[in-house]
Amino acid sequence: MPVTGESLVNIYTWEQTLYVNFSEEGANRLLQLYDLGGRLVFSQTLDQGLSHALQMKLEQGMYLVRIQSPKGVTTQRVFVR
Question: Which domains does the chain have, with CATH numbers?
Fold first, then answer.
């Protein structure tokens, strides 16, 4: 699990859903999804909560998930099937 400031975040996909689970509550987290060409394909501010499930309509492949919060920034690769 990558570390964002003091909290841990677990990011994974299952089919066309991106799951993001945090170890601590927080607000104003910006999630951005990039393809490997560096193009922004999805962006959303995550509301309060520990777990988020985001439905996506993406082509199969590798993507970079970037999460920015007041505590810091984390980036992780995910594969979409």
Answer: 3-75 (2.60.40.3080)
